[in-house]
Amino acid sequence: MTLLPVKSLDSFGISPCSSSSTSIALRRGTIAPFSYLLVSSIHRLPSLRLSIRTASTVVRAMASHVVGYPRIGPKRELKFALESFWDGKSTADDLQKVATDLRASIWKQMADAGIKFIPSNTFSYYDQVLDTATMLGAVPSRYGWNGGEIGFDTYFSMARGNASVPAMEMTKWFDTNYHYIVPELSPEDKFTYASHKAVNEYKEAKALGVETIPVLVGPVSFLLLSKPAKGVEKSFSLLSLVGKILPIYKEVVSELKAAGATWIQFDEPTLVKDLDTHQLQAFAHAYSELESVLSGLNVLIETYFADVPAEAYKTLTSLKGVSGYGFDLVRGTQTLDLIKGKFPSGKYLFAGVVDGRNIWSNDLQASLNTLEALQNVVGKENIVVSTSCSLLHTAVDLVNETKLDDEIKLWLAFAAQKVVEVNALAKALSGHKDEAYFSANAAAQASRKSSPRVTNEAVQKAAAALKSSDHRRATNVSVRLDAQQKKLNLPKLPTTTIGSFPQTMDLRRVRREFKAKKISEEVYVSSIKEEINKVVQLQEELDIDVLVHGEPERNDMVEYFGEQLSGFAFTVNGWVQSYGSRCVKPPIIYGDVSRPKPMTVFWSTMAQSMTKRPMKGMLTGPVTILNWSFVRNDQPRFETCYQIALAIKDEVEDLEKAGITVIQIDEAALREGLPLRKSEENFYLNWAVHSFRITNCGVQDTTQIHTHMCYSNFNDIIHSIIDMDADVITIENSRSDEKLLSVFREGVKYGAGIGPGVYDIHSPRIPSTDEIADRINKMLAVLESNILWVNPDCGLKTRKYTEVKPALLNMVDAAKLLRSQLASAK
C-alpha cells in the first residue's frame, strides 16, 4: 500500500482515463498537513487516474482531528502493567513494552479510521501535567533529583510518594473526574529540559509510518494549574515564571521541528475560565515570545470543557503565528456566536462537535448542519472536524461490550466509535457522505427518543414536586449535635475511617464468581460476612470510635448503587482513568431513576450486630452518583439529580428504621461539577446542595448524618458546604498540604462536626504518630475541639492491610495523645 502525503493542497479530483498508468498532478492550494491520499486501490483500477480538474467538480480532501485518546488500553492493560511494576513483579522494560504497544495500537487505529491530525504525547504513565513538570525539570527538592533525564523512580515518587517523602498534591482536572498532579513552583526555581518524552513519542510514531501532531500542555495553563511551593507566599504570581519556562518550550519545539513535525498542538484549557486582563496579557506575551521558534510550523491552540469568554476569544484569535484554534462546541455552544461574529481570515477552525465527555452517539445530521454553517463563515478549506476535548474522559471501545442491552448499545459511542464519527462527519463535509451510516445513526437517535424504557411518569412528577421546598431539617445543627452526643457518647476527637477497607484479590474473586454464578448466594453471603467481621474486629482492636463495615460487597461506590436503581445500564469494559492506575467504570444513566428495593440495609444491619460501637451506614450521594456517571443528555442534569436524591432518601429512611444511627452520604464529587465560569456557579450549587438535603431532611435529630468530600479545592465553596447542613463532614486535607485549614484561619465559622484528613491514603507511606498529632494540633488552632474528628483523607480500598493497620494505629494513638493533652490543659 502506498501513502502519498499531500501537504500543501486543498483539493484533488479523480477522472477516467484510457491509460493504465497512474499519474498524479496537484493543483496549487493549501490543506491541513497530514492529509494523505490512499492510492493503493487506484493502482488496481487501470481505467482511473488522478489529474488536475479545472472545469469539473472538485472534492475537498477530508480534514479530521482527535484532541487526545484514552491511554489505559481497551482492557486496562496500562493499569495492570503499572501495578505489576510498582509491586516489583515486572521490570521497567516490561512496563515500557506495554506502553509502546498501546501507543502503536492507538496511532494505527486512528490512521486506519482516516484521521488526519493524529495526536502524539497524549500517552502518560500517570498524568500529562506531571509529564509537563518533568519536561521542565520542575521537581521539588524533597525527591532528591540531581539533574539529567528524569526516570521512573523520581517520576513515580512525585506521583505517589515513597517510604520517606509524601506525594505531590492531586486535584480534579477542571470539572472532570480525572485527577492531575499539581506542580509546586517557587521564585527560585531553575528550569531545565529534563524529559524528552514529547520528541521521543513523535519520532516513535514517525518510525511506524504515522505522522502526528505533538501535543504539549501550554505554558500559561501549566502555570495557572500549578501552586506556590511550601514556604512560598500565597500571593506569589505563578505567571511571573513564564519567562523562565519559555526557553524549555523553545528547546522542545526546536527538537520537534528538527524531527520533522509540521504541526504542534498547545492545550490551553484555562482559556475557558474567567481570566483577568493580566492573565490574558501573559498569554499573549507567552505566544509572542514563542513566535520566532514556531516560525515554519503550523500551531494549533486547543481549548475545551466550556465556552471561551469574549475577551479570551479576542486575545486568542489575535495571536500572530497561530494557524488554528480548537473549540469545544458541545459544552461551549456560545462560542459558536463568537465564531460567526468574527473569525480570522485564513485560519483553521478545529470544530469540536463530537462529545469527548459522554458516551452517547453523535447526532450526525445535527453536527453536519452546524459544520456546514461554520464552513460558510470560516471557508471550506479551513474547517477541521474534531472532538470537543480529549477522549480520555470516555470509555475505550464499545466492541468489548458483549453484555449490554442491544437497544441501549445502539445509542452509544465510546472513544473508538467517536473516532469513526469524526471521520464520517469530515467525509460528509467534503462531499462523501456515507448515507447508510447516517441513516443508521438517525434511526438510533429516533429509537432513543421514543423508547418507553426511558420515561417513568411517576418519577417525573415526584421530582417536579421537589421544587416547592428547600428540604431542611427541622432543628439547627448545634441542637442536633447535642442530641446525638447524648445517644452516641463519643470521646473528644472521635476517630473514624471514610468507608472502604482494602479490597484483596480473594475478595474480588468471590464477587466475580458470584456474579458469574459459579458460587451460590449462600456461599457469597457467608464470605462477605466473614470479611465484614474481620474488618469490625480490626477496628475494635485499633480502638476506632465510629466503625464502618469496609464495603467488601461493593465493586465501586457509584456502580454498586447504580446496579440497584432503575434507569441505569452497565458495561463490562467501560473503564475510564481517574488517576494513575486507578480506573472507574461509570454507570450509564439512560432513563428516569428510582429505587425498587433497599440497597444497603442488609449489610449495614449485619455489621451493626457485630459490635456495640456505632456502625456507619454508607451511601453515595446523588450529586456524586450523577457526576461519576455517564448522564443522559436529553434532560437537564438537575432533574436527573433530583430523581437520584429521592431514591437515596428512601434508603436513608430505611437505614434509620433498621437502627442505624450514623449514616454517611458521600458527596466526593460535589465540587467537581462546579461550572468553570463564575456566572454559572450559583445555579449549580443551589440544585446540588438542595439534592443532598433532600436525602436526609426527614431523619430524627438523633440520627447523625455525615458526608465526605475529597481531592478538590473546597475553600471557594465553603459556604455551600455549610449550607448542606450535614452533622459531620470528613474532607481531604493532608495531600493538599492542609489548604482547607486556611479558610478557617480567615475567619469562616463552622459549627458542625468536621474531620479534615490527617494522612494521605493514595501513598504507600505510613505516617508516624507525631506527624499525625502535629496535623491535629494545626487543626485545633482553627477549629474547636468539640467539633473536630480524626480520620484519613479518603477510603482505604486501594491500600494493603500492611499499610492500613500501622497507619490507623498511629492515627488512633495521635488522637489519644491529643485528648490527654487537652484534658491536662483544662
From TrEMBL:
Per its Swiss-Prot or TrEMBL entry, what cofactor is needed? Zn(2+)
Q: What EC number(s) would the UniProt record show?
A: 2.1.1.14
Q: Residues in domain Cobalamin-independent methionine synthase MetE N-terminal?
A: 64-377
Name the InterPro entries for this protein. Answer: Cbl-indep_Met_Synth_N, Cobalamin-indep_Met_synthase, Met_Synth_C/arc, UROD/MetE-like_sf
The Gene Ontology biological process terms listed for this entry are: methylation
* Domain (Cobalamin-independent methionine synthase MetE C-terminal/archaeal) ranges: 493-816
Alphabetic keyword roster: Amino-acid biosynthesis, Metal-binding, Methionine biosynthesis, Methyltransferase, Transferase, Zinc
Catalysed reaction(s)? 5-methyltetrahydropteroyltri-L-glutamate + L-homocysteine = tetrahydropteroyltri-L-glutamate + L-methionine
Task: Specify the pathway.
Answer: Amino-acid biosynthesis; L-methionine biosynthesis via de novo pathway; L-methionine from L-homocysteine (MetE route): step 1/1
What Pfam family is a match, any one?
Answer: Meth_synt_2
Tell me the GO molecular function terms.
Answer: 5-methyltetrahydropteroyltriglutamate-homocysteine S-methyltransferase activity; methionine synthase activity; zinc ion binding
Q: Which family does it belong to?
A: Belongs to the vitamin-B12 independent methionine synthase family.
As for what it does, the entry says:
Catalyzes the transfer of a methyl group from 5-methyltetrahydrofolate to homocysteine resulting in methionine formation.
Query: How is this protein named in the record?
Result: 5-methyltetrahydropteroyltriglutamate--homocysteine S-methyltransferase
Species this chain originates from: Cucurbita maxima
